Amino acid sequence: MTLEMTEIERAPPNAPTVLPSIPSKQYSPLRWTMWPQRRGNHWVVVDLSVFKQPCSKQPMGIYSIGPHWPGVVFVIALLVGSTQYICSTWPWASWPSVLFCVVCFVLLALTSCTDPGFVSVSATATDDSEELCFCEDCQLYRPDSAFHCDYCGRCVDGWDHHCVWMGQCIGKDNYKIFWRFNVAWLLYLGFLLYLTSMD
């Protein structure tokens, strides 16, 4: 599936807000759903938007799993299976392997459930030289750094790629966490290779 750029147009100063956020009253705060609620191509796990961030006073995030959630389940199974194998083969290495597994799991959850930077409001040009792209699918103007993902069905600011193993796009808001996860699992793999080389 290929992603095609749409025609570039300039946004008017009073570009309307489209794709507004779902009102927080539709979700109960801190309520983990047994069956995540569908929102577009994602499934909302927990909604914290009724709470304000301490510094910026902006609403906290809505955490959801992307369209490729089976990839996340596979990665979790791989982490747990590797940890079980290490604990049963090298009992003395149980604590380091469990620590690696927990760190990888936390970073995986943060990457998969963090909004990658979905564009939900039409951007406006900050100066005369800035060009904005109009997305016909989302019906909004997006900044130059954004791109429309056909899998997620949304424009993502700072779009890097769509990762099936993380379950969703990698954008400006989860890019750093994504690379921390990569470093963590590579260190875990190095630890496993070290253990196997000792035999």
Our count of helices gives 3
Average per-residue pLDDT, rounded, comes to 75
* Count of distinct strands: 10
Please summarize the sheet with the most strands.
Answer: 3 strands, antiparallel
Could you tell me the strand content as a percent range?
15-25%
Low-confidence stretches: 1-11, 15-35
Helix/strand order, N-terminal first = EEEEHHEEEEEEH
Distance between the termini: 45 Å
What does this structure look like?
It is a single chain. This protein has 199 residues and is an alpha+beta fold. It contains three helices and ten strands; from the N terminus they run E-E-E-E-H-H-E-E-E-E-E-E-H. Strands 1-5-6 form a three-stranded antiparallel β-sheet, with no helix packed on it. The chain has a three-stranded antiparallel β-sheet with strand order 2-3-4, with no helix packed on it. The chain has a two-stranded antiparallel sheet with strand order 7-8. Helix 1 runs antiparallel to helix 2 and helix 2 (94-113) packs antiparallel against helix 3. It is elongated. The chain starts with 7 loop residues before the first strand and ends with a helix.
